[in-house]
Amino acid sequence: ELGILPGGNSSRAMDINDRGEVVGSSSTYSGEHAFIYTKQMGIKDLNSADSAGCGLIFIEAHAINARGQVLVAGRSAHSPAMSNTTSSEDNEICAPAPPSNFLLTPVTIH
Predict the structure, then answer these.
(1) 6, 29 in Cβ contact below 8 A?
(2) What is the pLDDT of residues 86-107, one digit of tens each?
(3) Which of 3, 34, 70, 97 qualifies as a FRET site for 22, CA 20 to 30 Å off?
(4) Cα separation of 77 and 54, whole Å?
(5) How many Cβ atoms from other residues are within 10 Å of residue 62's Cβ?
(6) How many CB atoms lie within 10 A of CB 15?
(7) Contacts of 101 (CB under 8 A, 6+ apart)
């Protein structure tokens, strides 16, 4: 049992490393968020003040390696997650940019 992030009702695991760290995605009150789970900390949102400061939302963690580096998919916090608009001039459908991938590397603070 991994649990769920606050405000959510479901989570799904995507990968596990040899240390038993699990990554994936959990629903929240504001949409899907990437998470990491450890026995010591439980489930933890990978979004932080740092990612918000960069204008990013990490939506799904795909992989974690033995060093604890996490591959996540993220999108701009300033673009709608699921919104299409139609241009009246040329009748084209404009969709939000697809998610980008990021490599998160843990840092030890002494």
Answers:
(1) yes
(2) 444 445 566 667 789 999 999 8
(3) 97
(4) 9
(5) 15
(6) 15
(7) 62, 71, 72, 73, 74
Q: How far apart are CA 103 and CA 69, in angstroms?
A: 7
In angstroms, the CA 91 to CA 85 distance is: 10
**pLDDT at 84 exceeding the cut of 50:** no
In 3D space, the residue among 33, 34, 32 whose CA is nearest the CA of residue 22 turns out to be 34
Closest by alpha carbon to 34, among 57, 10, 65? 57
* Residue where the block lists tokens 């699990």: 22
Alpha carbons 64 and 72: distance in angstroms, whole number: 9
Query: Do the beta carbons of residue 61 and residue 22 sit within 8 Å?
Result: no
Secondary structure (DSSP) of 74-92: EEETTS-SS--EE-TTT--
Torsion angles phi and psi, residue 95, rounded to 5: -115, 160
